[in-house]
Specification:
The protein is of the alpha+beta class. The longest helix is centred in the N-terminal third of the chain and has 17 residues. α1 packs antiparallel against α5 and α5 runs parallel beside α9. The chain has two domains: 241 residues, Bira Bifunctional Protein, Domain 2 (BirA Bifunctional Protein, domain 2, 2-Layer Sandwich), CATH 3.30.930.10; 90 residues, Anticodon-binding domain (Rossmann fold). Helix content is 38%, strand content 21%. The protein has an eight-stranded mixed β-sheet. A five-stranded mixed β-sheet has the order 13-12-14-15-16, with helices on both faces. A three-stranded antiparallel β-sheet has the order 2-4-3. The chain binds adenosine-5'-triphosphate and magnesium ion (MG). Adenosine-5'-triphosphate binds next to β6, β10, β11 and α11.
């Protein structure tokens, strides 16, 4: 017996409808915003991620699935979607199209993490990227798109937290102040934070250990270090969200795990999934495209974790039960099966979803099966009916049975729906 690799999951036939429900809402709302899909490869050259996400981040330093291919190239399974989209944008000269360019992706991503509920090694993300300007309206529209999706899914109790990480100039001053503060506390923080102090000081604010959290709560705040332009930009975004009635909270602790962010960062969080409470994270990244060799362009984007959304929907009992097929065609014997298959095919052409007996079960077992798969109607093709050119139609919810000519079945069923 070969088992599934640690940190991965099968989506079984009885739960895939949940994924399809979530994905459909994401695709429909993307379309409503005229955001179009982009598809990129599952693997990229390792350098793309180390350069864009940043060597000092957890994702690049600890979590990547990296290997040498048979040609000796270092390849990495994508740990996220943004870097690949940026690579594709530059490589395909998408900047020559009229901007802004609004794209979404629906992908699996891979991170070597310690698996737990809502934290997998292969997980799935829906993400959006807006390319084209350092305009706060892009930030606003991307956030409202994410908000519409979470609302469209029917989720409750999700909070939007926003922050500004400033531009490279004001962030530099802030990071200096942050390091000065942490220098006094280096003896108290956890080992990971000691490492962060050198490699990625902003991440000190994001530590989940209680002692580090306490130290972070008294750290200098980025708000006090923003330059005038960054401050105005952030205030404008807050104003837009307020006037659109999108509730939010300013949270200086939102720093995000990846290096490429500038100014706006945000997360949608829930208190219902423990340490895996972030269902969506994103922000502005004005330097990413130029960092990987393209012409500088203002961008903003976000990614949602689909597993976490599905867990939350389950927790909140927000999924309706899966619908069964409209009809199950019950066949008394083999000759009836041959006719039943034709009946099923005609009903499918008329737009019904139809399942038909295929395995030689008894009539009783077939009725049981029709109930089990939650068919609305059982269409019965028996020897007697076949001789008359008719079929019986039984609605399984009330047991009422009617009979009609085989050629009239589609119409007959539509009247009884
Ligand atoms: P976390 O702080 O929970 O590790 P992150 O900051 O690493 O999240 P991002 O890189 O921003 O996550 O990815 C966007 C979203 O993808 C997250 O908000 C989360 O919903 C989801 N996600 C990230 N890593 C995983 C994972 N290992 N398993 C399941 N979902 C994940
Ligand atoms: Mg992470």
């Amino acid at each position: 017996m070969i088992n599934i690799p640690k940190g991965t999951k099968d989506v079984l036939p009885n739960e895939s409808y949940k994924w399809q429900y979530v994905e459909k809402i994401m695709r429909d709302i993307s379309k409503a915003y005229n955001v179009r899909e982009i598809r990129t490869p599952v693997f990229e050259h390792t350098e793309l991620f180390s350069r864009s996400i940043g060597d000092g981040t957890d994702v690049v330093s600890k979590e990547m699935y990296t290997f040498l291919d048979k040609g000796g190239r270092s390849i990495t399974l994508r740990p996220e979607g943004t870097a690949s989209v940026a690579r594709s944008y530059v490589e395909n000269n998408l900047e020559s199209l009229s901007l802004p360019l609004k794209m979404y992706y629906m992908i699996s991503a891979f991170r070597y993490e310690r698996p737990q509920a809502g934290r997998l090694r292969e997980f799935h993300q829906y993400g959006v990227e807006y390319y084209g300007a350092q305009s706060v309206y892009l930030d606003f529209e991307a956030i409202s798109l994410a908000h519409d999706i979470l609302k469209g899914l029917g989720l409750k109790g999700i909070l939007l937290k926003i922050n500004s990480l400033g531009c490279p100039e004001c962030r530099k001053k802030y990071v200096e102040a942050l390091k000065e503060y942490y220098l006094k506390h280096l003896g108290e923080v956890c080992d990971t934070c000691k490492d962060r102090f050198n490699k990625n000081p902003l991440r000190l604010l994001d530590c989940k250990s209680p002692i580090c959290k306490g130290i972070a709560s008294n750290a200098p705040r980025i708000q006090d270090y923003l330059c005038d332009d960054c401050k105005d930009y952030h205030e404008k975004l807050c104003g837009l969200l307020k006037s659109e009635g999108i509730p939010f909270e300013n949270d200086p602790g939102i720093v995000r795990g990846l290096d490429y962010y500038t100014r706006t960062v945000f997360e949608f969080v829930t208190s219902e999934l423990g340490a895996q409470g972030t269902v969506c994270g994103g922000g502005r990244y004005d330097n990413l495209v130029s960092d990987i060799g393209g012409k500088s362009v203002g961008c903003v984007g976000f990614a949602m974790g689909i597993e976490r959304l599905i867990m939350l929907l389950e927790e909140q009992n927000a999924f309706s039960a899966e619908l069964g097929p409209d009809c199950f065609v019950i066949c008394q014997n083999e000759e009836c099966i041959r006719n039943g298959l034709r009946v099923a095919s005609e009903l499918r052409k008329a737009g019904y979803s139809v399942d038909c007996e295929l395995t030689g079960k008894s009539m009783k077992a077939q009725f049981k099966y029709a109930d089990k798969i939650k068919a609305t109607f059982a269409v019965v093709i028996g020897e007697e009916e076949l001789n008359k050119g008719t079929a019986k139609v039984k609605k399984l919810s009330d047991g009422i049975e009617t009979e009609c000519r085989i050629e009239d079945l589609a119409q007959h069923i539509s009247k009884r729906k």
